[in-house]
Every structure is written in C-alpha cells, then in structure tokens.
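lol forgot to send this yesterday, sorry. struct tokens for the thing we talked abt
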C-alpha cells in the first residue's frame, strides 16, 4: 500500500514538472519571436508617432504657435516662436501661427521658408528653424515637437509687394480727394455765376418776381454758352 502511494506521488510530481517545463518553453518562444520582430526588417519606427523621432530631412512642414513651448528630451523647453530683434521692436507684431516649409537642402542644412499672415508694414527678416537632436546636438534625427523658430521683424522696403499695395492705395485716395476738391470748386463757381446773373436781371429789368424768375431760367443756358465762348462783345440781356 505504501509503495502504491509513493508511486502516485512520484507520477504527480512528474506530471506537474512537465507542465511547468512546457510553459517555460512557450514563454521562451514568445520572447524570441518578439526580439526577432524588433531586430528584423518587420519593425518600422513611426517617426512622429510612438518612437518620438524623425529624420529632419523628412520633415515637410512645422507648425508653430505663440505661447506654446517645445517638447524636450535632452534640454529644456523653449517657446516655439522667438523674436530676437530687427528693425522694429518685437512687440510691434506677433504672428498668430507660422508654417515653416522644408524647401530643400544646401548640402549640409535644411532650408526653410516660413510664410505667415502679417501686417503689411512688416516682414520677417532673418529666420532660423532649430530642432533638438534626438541623441546628440547634430543628430540627423530630431525629437517630435522640439522645433522652434527664431526670427527678426523688419519694415517692408520700397520693392516689397505690401509696400507697393499700400502706396498705391494711398495714391488712389489722394487722387479721389483732389477730384472731389476740383468738383467742389467748379460747383461753387457755377453757383456764383448764376447768382451774379440773377443780380444783373434784377438791376436791369422791371416786372413781377415771377416774370423775372422765368426770364432768368430761360436765359441761363444761353448766358453760360456765351460765357464759355468768352465773347466780351456780347451784351447781357
């Protein structure tokens, strides 16, 4: 009886030992599969996604906002938009958003163009887009959201599109003011001539006021015609 119990206990240990060994082998297989996937060609970094880095030359556009800070990994966060001077004070204008476009490379650095909606009196002077290298300062991979723009603000020069537009609008407004002034002078001149003509009729003719007014109205066109011809030999009637 005792031998039977010992035999059953032995088989129980053997059974549970086999189960544990099988489970350990499965875990080893799963770990090795995961490691192979990470090290193999099937693993692709997400760039701006979970891997938090991307090759700087692959960045197409960077959108920057005032008051927002950059992401950081090796350094401290900095403002996404940073004015560093120029022809005017930085408080003269603050862009609401700036989209910096990657327009190529000069062989060593990425070249950027940063258009924005700006008051027509100002423009960006010098611009510099900076991003935090992922592992070291000159790393070709940069951290997601770590880019910022340093810029200066200058006045638009004489050859600038905005200056031409503003100058043309000012010139057009001046022309309208001159035309309005000339028109007013002509109108006052006509009124003065009519008043003078009425005065002549009142001093040279007698009769009722109604007859004099009808006579004046009827003779105004001929009087203006004679005046425009500048013929002093003709007498007023």
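and heres what i got for the seq, position by position
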């Amino acid at each position: 009886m005792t031998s039977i119990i010992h035999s059953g206990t032995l088989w129980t240990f053997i059974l549970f030992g086999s189960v544990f060994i099988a489970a350990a082998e499965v875990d080893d297989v799963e770990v090795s599969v995961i490691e192979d996937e990470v090290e193999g060609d099937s693993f692709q970094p997400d760039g701006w996604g979970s891997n938090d880095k991307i090759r700087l030359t692959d960045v197409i556009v960077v959108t920057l906002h005032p008051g927002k800070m950059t992401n950081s990994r090796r350094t401290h966060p900095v403002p996404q938009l940073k004015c560093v001077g120029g022809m005017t004070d930085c408080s003269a204008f603050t862009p609401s958003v700036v989209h910096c476009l990657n327009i190529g490379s000069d062989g060593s650095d990425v070249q950027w163009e940063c258009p924005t909606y700006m008051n027509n009196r100002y423009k960006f002077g010098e611009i510099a887009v900076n991003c935090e290298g992922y592992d070291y300062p000159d790393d070709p991979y940069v951290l997601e959201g770590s880019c910022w723009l340093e810029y200066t603000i200058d006045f638009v020069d004489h050859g600038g599109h905005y200056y031409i537009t503003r100058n043309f609008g000012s010139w057009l407004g001046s022309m309208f003011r001159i035309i309005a002034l000339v028109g007013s002078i002509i109108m006052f001149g006509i009124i003065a001539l009519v008043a003078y003509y009425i005065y002549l009729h009142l001093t040279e003719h007698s009769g009722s006021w109604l007859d004099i007014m009808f006579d004046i109205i009827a003779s105004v066109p001929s009087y203006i015609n004679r005046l425009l011809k500048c013929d002093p030999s003709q007498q007023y009637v």
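Helices lie at 2-39, 161-204, 209-229. anyway ping me if u want another try
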